[in-house]
Design goal:
Length: about 350
């Protein structure tokens, strides 16, 4: 017996990092940022940029809930951002500036739009689902451009950030940062609980084999529609935050290009990984922010005119970089991290 125990191979877990710690590290970094920002000498800029990252992280995470776990490729998801933003803008223009009213209205509006459009869209599959969600998103976009009373195509400027219980708690950039972080964490915790629940298991099962789920007594349509509504509401919350950060509302919030960017963020971070969607949003926005400066200051490009031209047309470099990351980083950033753990 002793000899058998001695010859039995022992599985030793490598002392490397653990991918499951990524969410803890991610939220710890967001929490530490306001404390470290003053040392950068540009505290306002850092907080503004990271707040934008968190807002888009919420939006990307809401899309990942249906794309990564339900294989529902929505090309009109930015419509929910627009609903949340216009709920803030329209109510503020009529003197209702309290977030305790604006946010519930945005969530209800997003849920109703998702319920109606989802009930129609989910009766289609594949490319037809993509096209019909795109059509609904564009329908809402053109509706926003026609609202002359609320700025039309030019958008509308908010008088101030939303009040909370009648108090201007969001006026400070630092306070707004912490509220955005709280919303990000709450959305992540809620989405993770949904994915881990029986509901989430049925949703994943419908993604893999809807016929089998139907055969064992579950109706994938109902679960997919519920997930679509939940996803829309979370995106609507992101729209409320986006309007408050910019203090401006525009139809540009809900263009199909914005929906495409959200899909890219999710794929970049890793499908079916909620914190991966946040990382994808962060990488996308940070590249978008700093790539022009990097290109302009690149020392290996000796010709100043060429370097300046490339910096002005930085999207010519930005696009191929993102495509190469998606092509060669199978499973996105989270896929790379998992392979690094086992490699």
């Amino acid at each position: 017996m002793t000899e058998l125990a001695q010859t039995q191979p022992v599985s030793v877990r490598s002392p490397g990092w653990r991918p499951e710690l990524v969410p803890i590290v991610l939220f710890a970094a967001f929490a530490a940022a306001p404390l470290l920002a003053p040392a950068s000498g540009a505290e306002g800029y850092v907080l503004s940029l990271l707040t934008r990252v968190m807002i888009f992280g919420i939006a990307a995470m809401s899309l990942d809930l249906i794309l990564g776990y339900g294989a529902l490729v929505s090309f009109g998801h930015a419509a929910f951002l627009g609903i949340g933003a216009y709920a803030v803008g329209i109510l503020a223009s009529h003197g209702i500036e309290d977030a305790l009213i604006q946010v519930p209205v945005a969530l209800i509006g997003s849920a109703l739009f998702a319920l109606v459009t989802g009930a129609i869209s989910l009766r289609t599959k594949g490319v037809y689902f993509i096209m019909i969600t795109l059509a609904f998103g564009q329908m809402l976009f053109f509706l926003a451009t026609s609202l002359a009373a609320y700025g039309g195509d030019d958008g509308m400027t908010l008088p101030s950030r939303s009040l909370v219980g009648g108090f201007p708690l969001l006026k400070s950039d630092a306070a707004f940062y912490w509220v955005s972080l709280l919303c990000l964490f709450g959305s992540y915790a809620f989405s993770r609980s949904v994915v881990a629940s029986r509901f989430g298991r049925v949703l994943r099962g419908a993604k893999e084999n809807p016929a089998r789920m139907e055969a064992i007594g579950f109706h994938p349509f109902r679960y997919q529609l519920a997930a679509y509504v939940i996803s829309g509401m979370i995106a609507g919350l992101a729209g409320c935050l986006m309007a408050n950060q910019a203090e401006f509302v525009s139809p540009a919030f809900m263009t199909w290009q914005r929906s495409g960017e959200l899909i890219f963020m999710v794929v970049l971070g890793g499908l079916g990984s909620l914190h991966g969607a946040i990382i994808g949003a962060a990488l996308f926005l940070l590249l978008e922010e700093f790539l022009p400066e990097i290109l302009h200051g690149a020392s290996f490009m000796m010709d100043d005119a060429f370097r300046s031209h490339l910096a002005e047309n930085w999207k010519m470099v930005f696009g191929p970089i993102l495509i190469l990351i998606v092509l060669f980083a199978r499973g996105g950033i989270m896929g790379l991290l998992r392979r690094g753990r086992h490699g």
